[in-house]
């Protein structure tokens, strides 16, 4: 029982790290970026290649994955994405879904279509018994790391100057620009940050979610659910949503395996009926 | 609607395929015999395609690409593994345009189903080298199989578990036709011998996270867990099996050999050690034929180990070669089909026969355990059931 809960929280946390960037692009820049998962995939493959082919320590791989995805995000934002900010949503959707297919094909070409496997270092594998419950060490690691990221993001957004500028740009980009806030640069940095987090999530997820060239498509739905249920443009909304979905998903598979993946969609429908504005959003937001 | 045009074109193509072999008997004697090979060379099942393609190429190289006195040309087509309509179109093109003497390959059950009507209409023998659902051979009188069937390899592990004194076993299978085949046969055999199946789990084909399922198994505490997942998924299951501590809880891992596929067995690492599975081929099979096969295969494809898919491809070529030999290279259509029925030979996997009536493969099935030898993981065979047939649907 408790094990199921812990597993659910761990998978929810992971989902959050992967999806939070999407909620930022959607909420802040009003840009529908379906290719968000591709950055996660990029991070995952960086981690796999470094770990398996070059024997780099796992923690260094995670950092490299995040950094690579962030730089990739920055590059693509400057070269491609910014051209589509002003366009309507259909253009953005078509553009980004095309990017997903390109990313999948590129990975397939260079690294093959098979599932990628990694071997975790000894200190992260196995499980520990806490009283009645046995918990995988890696899941605890996920919860700890992702929890720290959530806290950092939340404080960063609420307490720092960067955060307040960002929130100002979200609320009204025109006025923010008028006040001398460099909205353009803010967008780029935020986009890179979101991509970097996705890359980190992808690397963390290799062990739990698997990794192959269809990764961005497979998990796109999950990311969108997190953002839709959580509401864009906050950190805590998607976080609560991701936790909820993670727990519901794992518990559903445990208690009613016949239902398969339906538990998560049922949860989404119910939540959207109850809180169409998103979990934590005030009724009159935006 | 613009859909009607291609459909009509397809119908026409199908009709041409039907009359072509009758209208044009015996093409010039010197021309090469063409064989159409349809495999998933890209997409999620590309490893199946790569293994079979490598084995087919190896077979041709070793046999001087002249079978039954005639030069043989293999035309490889990629059906991506997930699109039955593509498989069907490719089969049609190969039959109509390239005039192939036989179709071969077929990575998954739905793909074999899609091509079956083409083989029937055009009267072209179709050699199934991979797909493993029982009913496939019934879909066309022109289908012959050189891979295996899931019931064929599942029944032996159920018998073995009973013999080992295992009385309760949970099942975990992937929710698609071969998985359901495996689940049904395991349960029937195991229950018939007095075993209990307290828990039956089916995981979705796409993106399964095995953790919750395995946690459920651990909490149910059976003596063993029977697993079938498609080749390639095994590693993920194995990892969760270890992480959840199922082995420490006294639950033994048994299954069909798909779980410990030779292609990725080494990447699974220590968690795989000790898993007992039943299958028709292990790269560690102890015979002169297999040693030669593995050595030649690895030499031609560095870093790759032949798995059960590759041996299905190798034997498929062997079957076609035997058929062509018996007919002095002239056989086609029904004559070639009849020449292939009932053939026996010694494969790298051991003695095999393609049954004359069922057109399905009859072969030895081995019980193997994962062990470490020379720094690598292998499926070491320790028991054998001779001449196992598909127990039927």
Automatic annotation (TrEMBL), chain A:
Q: Where in the cell is it found?
A: Cell membrane
Identify its membrane topology class.
Answer: Multi-pass membrane protein
Coiled-coil regions listed: none
Signal sequence, start to end: none
Q: Give the matching Pfam families.
A: BPD_transp_2
- List membrane-spanning regions: 9-28, 58-81, 93-111, 132-157, 186-209, 221-248, 254-274
- Does the record carry Nucleus as a key word? no
Name the keywords, alphabetized: Amino-acid transport, Cell membrane, Membrane, Transmembrane, Transmembrane helix, Transport
InterPro entries named in the record: ABC_transp_permease, BCAA_transport_permease
| Family the UniProt entry places it in | Belongs to the binding-protein-dependent transport system permease family. LivHM subfamily.
Instruction: Specify the protein name.
Output: Branched-chain amino acid ABC transporter permease
Q: Which organism is it from?
A: Paracraurococcus ruber
From TrEMBL, chain B:
The family database entries (Pfam families) matched by this protein are listed as: Peripla_BP_6
Which family does the similarity line name? Belongs to the leucine-binding protein family.
The record's keywords, sorted A to Z, are: Amino-acid transport, Signal, Transport
**Presence of keyword Transcription:** no
Q: Does the keyword Transport apply?
A: yes
PANTHER family cross-referenced by the UniProt entry: LEUCINE-SPECIFIC-BINDING PROTEIN, PERIPLASMIC BINDING PROTEIN OF ABC TRANSPORTER FOR NATURAL AMINO ACIDS
Q: Which residues form the Leucine-binding protein domain?
A: 33-374
UniProt-listed InterPro entries: BCAA_transport, Leu-bd, Peripla_BP_I
What is the name of this protein? ABC transporter substrate-binding protein
């Amino acid at each position: 029982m408790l094990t199921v809960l812990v597993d659910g929280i761990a998978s929810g946390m992971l989902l959050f790290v992967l999806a939070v960037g999407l909620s930022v692009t959607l909420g802040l820049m009003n840009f529908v970026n379906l290719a968000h998962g591709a950055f996660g995939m990029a991070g995952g493959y960086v981690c796999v290649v470094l770990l398996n082919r070059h024997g780099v320590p796992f923690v260094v791989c995670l950092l490299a994955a995040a950094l690579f995805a962030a730089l990739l995000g920055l590059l693509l934002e400057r070269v491609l994405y910014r051209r589509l900010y002003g366009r309507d949503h259909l253009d953005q959707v078509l553009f980004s879904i095309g990017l997903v297919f390109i990313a999948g094909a590129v990975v397939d070409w260079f690294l093959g279509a098979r599932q990628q496997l990694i071997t975790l270092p000894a200190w992260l594998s196995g499980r520990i018994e806490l009283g009645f419950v046995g918990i995988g060490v890696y899941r605890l690691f996920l919860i700890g790391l992702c929890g720290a990221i959530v806290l950092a993001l939340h404080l960063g957004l609420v307490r720092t100057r960067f955060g307040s500028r960002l929130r100002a740009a979200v609320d009204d980009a025109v006025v923010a620009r008028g006040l001398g806030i460099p909205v353009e640069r803010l967008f780029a940095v935020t986009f890179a940050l979101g991509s970097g987090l996705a890359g980190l999530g992808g690397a963390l997820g290799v062990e739990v979610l698997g990794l192959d060239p269809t990764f961005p498509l497979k998990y796109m739905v999950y990311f969108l659910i997190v953002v839709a249920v959580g509401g864009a443009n906050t950190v805590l909304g998607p976080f609560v949503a991701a936790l909820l979905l993670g727990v519901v998903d794992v518990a559903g598979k445990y208690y009613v395996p016949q239902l398969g993946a339906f538990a998560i969609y049922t949860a989404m429908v119910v939540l959207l009926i109850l809180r169409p504005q998103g979990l934590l959003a005030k009724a009159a937001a935006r | 609607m613009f859909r009607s045009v291609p459909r009509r074109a397809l119908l026409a193509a199908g009709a041409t395929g039907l009359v072509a072999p009758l209208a044009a008997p015996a093409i010039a004697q010197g021309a090469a015999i063409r064989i159409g090979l349809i495999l998933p060379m890209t997409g999620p099942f590309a490893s199946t395609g790569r293994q079979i393609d490598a084995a087919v190429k190896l077979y041709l190289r070793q046999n001087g690409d002249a079978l039954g006195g005639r030069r043989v040309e293999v035309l490889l087509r990629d059906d991506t593994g997930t699109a039955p309509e593509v498989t069907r179109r490719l089969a049609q093109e190969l039959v109509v345009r390239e005039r192939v003497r036989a179709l071969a390959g077929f990575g998954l059950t739905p793909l074999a189903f899609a091509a079956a009507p083409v083989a029937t209409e055009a009267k072209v023998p179709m050699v199934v080298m991979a797909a493993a659902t029982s009913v496939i051979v019934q879909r066309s009188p022109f289908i012959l199989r050189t891979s295996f069937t899931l019931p064929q390899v599942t029944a032996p592990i159920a018998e073995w578990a009973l013999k080992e004194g295992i009385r309760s076993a949970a099942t975990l299978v992937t929710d698609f036709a071969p998985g359901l085949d495996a689940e049904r046969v395991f349960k029937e055999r195991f229950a018939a011998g007095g075993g209990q199946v307290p828990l039956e789990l089916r995981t979705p084909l796409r993106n399964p996270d095995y953790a919750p399922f395995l946690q459920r198994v651990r909490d149910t505490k059976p003596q063993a867990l029977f697993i079938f997942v498609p080749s390639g998924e095994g590693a993920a299951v194995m990892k969760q099996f270890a992480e959840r501590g199922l082995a420490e809880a006294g639950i033994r891992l048994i299954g069909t050999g798909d779980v410990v596929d030779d292609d990725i067995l080494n990447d699974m690492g220590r968690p795989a050690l000790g898993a007992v599975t039943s299958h028709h081929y292990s790269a560690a099979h102890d015979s002169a034929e297999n040693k030669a096969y593995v050595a030649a295969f690895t030499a031609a494809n560095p870093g790759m180990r032949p798995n059960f898919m590759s041996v299905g491809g190798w034997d498929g070529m062997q079957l076609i070669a035997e058929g062509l030999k018996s007919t002095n290279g002239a056989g086609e259509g029904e004559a070639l089909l009849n020449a292939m029925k009932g053939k026996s030979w010694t494969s790298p996997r051991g003695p095999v026969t393609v049954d004359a009536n069922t057109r399905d493969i009859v072969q030895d099935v081995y019980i193997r355990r994962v062990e470490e030898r020379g720094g690598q993981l292998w499926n070491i065979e320790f028991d054998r059931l001779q001449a196992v047939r598909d127990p039927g649907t």
